[in-house]
Amino acid sequence: MRPSICHIPFLLLLLLHVVIARPFFPLPSKTSNEVKKPIQTFRPYNIAHRGSNGEIPEETTAAYLRAIEEGADFIETDILASKDGALICFHDVTLDDTTDVSSHKEFANRRRTYEVEWSNVTGWFVVDFTLDELKTLKVKQRYSFRDQQYNGKFSIITFEEFISIALDASRTVGIYPEIKDPIFINKHVKWADGKKFEDKFVDTLLKYGYKGQYMSEYWLKQPLFIQSFAPTSLVHVSKLTDSPKIFLIDDFIVRTQDTNQSYWEITSDDYLAYISNYVVGLGPWKDTVVPTANNYLMAPTDLVARAHAHNLQVHPYTYRNENQFLHFNFHQDPYAEYDFWINTVGVDGLFTDFAGSVHQYQELISPHPKNATANSLLVKIAQMIAAYEGH
Ligand SMILES: *[C@@H]1O[C@H](CO)[C@@H](O)[C@H](O)[C@H]1NC(C)=O
Ligand SMILES: *[C@@H]1O[C@H](CO)[C@@H](O)[C@H](O)[C@H]1NC(C)=O
Ligand SMILES: *[C@@H]1O[C@H](CO)[C@@H](O)[C@H](O)[C@H]1NC(C)=O
């Protein structure tokens, strides 16, 4: 059957309405003095990874508005810098996978090869484009199995535009920006005032009133977690702001981009004791917390228990509803995965591509406060694994 106008999804109409009605976000927020519904703090945080990017191309205004509509506690973003030093929301250092850059003839000669985190990468790099040039591109969906209808509709946004989306929300919505690839950015982008990428990042947050320790009065009004894989960046920004920071941890085989440390070094008890002077939590790749084999979960590591023993929260990444990403233990039910991580592993937050599903899960299926008693959790996990082994 040929699609008719009646079949244009309602969501798209809503989005177009919102986006066209509000093409520019007034800076600073015009609603910052309103009394808003506070952020929930009694259960694990629902962190909308790159916005609601399971549905809408990542890190776009539409993806963030959708995540807020779906009940996210935090909207998450990756901050990179343009050639002329503008801070933008974009995940990859190259534009190839999530924009239409390859169809722009005027940029055909802009492809380069640079070393990025210990390997050579070829593509169109964000650091070779001015903000004005980046704004001429359109963002597209990263995965072929996700909805392609929004490709070409939305632009790359700046860090400031992202902040305005959070501040303009009708309830309190936190932000969760990452200092992305700081070694690479500081090598390729220079600011006239001699400041570093991390300084510009913090300047932007302070300019819009983001400050204060975790759970302080300021924090509750404008909740923020600063995240980075680079420990030296986290230590550096600790001198500039007391806002809470999260240390991201990659897969077992990945070494840190700045200190060239292994996974095992940065998850040792000594290191957790050290880094807990600077951060309030860890953001580990979830398969390092519960390793997998043949797409089944194996016995969990003690990372969550040890992090909690150091008074560190744990916010693993990334939860995705699709079959491609669900381990077989969850019998293709994303709620079963959320249930396992929230109630059995006892995490304190989840980075998800589907903030709406985490919200539904927390509101409708498991409305209980978190209970992250690490020792009892390990017993439960052991029981679960034993049950699976019988299959
Ligand atoms: C990247 O390429 C350059 C030039 O060919 C080479 O000198 C360098 O060793 C390469 N780096 C890595 C990490 O492979
Ligand atoms: C990083 O550490 C590994 C393991 O010690 C070492 O083999 C490698 O040469 C180091 N890389 C750099 C750039 O220092
Ligand atoms: C958390 O769970 C443990 C083990 O099931 C239980 O003993 C404890 O009472 C629970 N704590 C709270 C605050 O519910």
UniProtKB/TrEMBL annotation:
The protein's Enzyme Commission number: 3.1.4.46
GO MF term set: glycerophosphodiester phosphodiesterase activity
Domain GP-PDE, chain residue ranges per copy: 44-362
A GO BP annotation: glycerol metabolic process
Stored PROSITE patterns: GP_PDE
Pfam families linked to this entry: GDPD
Annotated Gene3D superfamilies: Phosphatidylinositol (PI) phosphodiesterase
Keyword tags: Glycerol metabolism, Glycoprotein, Hydrolase, Signal
Known catalytic reactions: a sn-glycero-3-phosphodiester + H2O = an alcohol + sn-glycerol 3-phosphate + H(+)
Entry-linked PANTHER family: GLYCEROPHOSPHODIESTER PHOSPHODIESTERASE, GLYCEROPHOSPHORYL DIESTER PHOSPHODIESTERASE
Protein name: glycerophosphodiester phosphodiesterase
